[in-house]
Amino acid sequence: MMAQARFKSVQWILLAVFALAPTAVLAQQANASQGLDEQVQEVKSDVLSIAAELSRLEEKLLYPSGTQVAIFIELAKGDQMRLDAVRLQIDGQLVAHYIYSFKELEALRKGGVQRIYVGNVATGDHQLNVFVDGKLKAGTDFSRSEHFTFHKEVKPKLVELTVGGPDSGKTPVTLGEQ
User: Fold this and answer.
1) Which of 40, 79, 119, 142 shows the smallest number of beta carbons within 10 Å?
2) Is a pLDDT exceeding 60 seen at residue 7?
3) DSSP code for 76
């Protein structure tokens, strides 16, 4: 009788072990899979941070701060001109030519600023020629060219160009320096 009860107990224990074993294995696999997902996310994060650091180092190498000039474009506040294209020349050399999409124009109208050029120039005075093409609110073509002189020192130079049509009441292209 005792042997039979013991046999029944062993049967129940074996049944419990075999019933719970797959559950434990599945739980371990889920944990391993979750751990793998976390590792993949960590690697992705590391790769993105390394790429950002490489980009920053590349910019430092290509554009040393002592010779760097950056030119930014913005639209005059409230101006409804449709900006189509901007061309920039520094000392007679074409350095940037940009054609604007609808989304980019909308971003500029909402106060956005575009970095249109980053490059190297020697210290001293430089001639900046700006050519702007677009359409006015009434649908007539608008084309202007402005000529500016800026002075480059031994530090980064920021040049801000504000573009507006004649409806803005301001000069079509104005220069701001830092």
Assistant:
1) 40
2) no
3) P
